Amino acid sequence: MNFSKTLINWYLKTKRELPWRETTNPYNIWLSEIMLQQTRIEQGLPYYNKFITAFPSVFDLADASQDKVMKLWQGLGYYSRARNLHATAQHVAYELDGEFPKDYKGLLKLKGVGDYTASAIASISYNEPVAVVDGNVYRVLSRYFNIDTPINSTNGVKEFKALAMELLDKKEPSNFNQALMEFGALQCKPKNPLCDSCPFNGSCLALKEGKIGELPVKIKKGKIKNRYFNYLVFSSEENKTLLQQRQGKGIWHGLYEFPLIETKADIQKARIIEENNEFRQLMEAKNVSVRLYNDQAIVHKLSHQHIYARFWLVASQTLPKEGISAEKVKEYPVPVLIQNFLNEIDIENL
Fold it and tell me: Which domain holds residue 315?
């Protein structure tokens, strides 16, 4: 059996109709690939459509404010991708005259573009014979060839890239790469793969050995970190509130949130007043009332940490610093945790 020919034939008959498959424009391919990293197509497609509508060209994206880019990205997660997307758009627009590099090595120099994205753009836009390896590809190859090398190990990355390059159809690298990724998404799925109708079920080694459910192998991540956030949701008589932009290299960098007090544990009102000077001063201030919005902490799970969040509603005649109109709050890019809270509460009428 010719692996690549069988795979491409399957793809041409089965592939989903997607907007970025209607073009070889590197801007569209780059945008879709950045968005779909660690994101299902069903989730990423509406975001892609929003971005293409708002920013039809790399120049439009480059000219936008970072806040606008982050607001449109809101809810897609992994926000460093959005910041890198904006920075790369500015580099391509202002320093490369709107022209993306035309080969794998040049693409790899762009901010936020690694082996996977550079390979995808190079093969799809320029038909360069370089193999793409993503989660779907790891799964298909590890099962078909019964490979138990951990896919997130240094050896695994090298082994699977070399294997993908060996299998790559040099005459049709674009179709081959897209076919292999699509096959993993639709046929060789993580759970309940469609082995009965698989065109490779007669030659798949993992199926023969009964190891489909064991592959691919992945080294377990480190321990999940728990963090405890207490958000102060201010409201003044002038119907203003406070937002602050997250700084540093931690989660949600560049997004906005309510003033935050982070504690070492999920503590109740009496203890947070006792242990935190800022909170105690609020409670003791004249013409200020503080009440807890949610008795049970809201658990927001990220890949490497779990956030336990409580929202404290702080009504005050005046704010401790200059605020913003409550009606403007929903215009700011915020983490999903904050957006869900805003969807529940009428921030304009606290």
Answer: 225-349
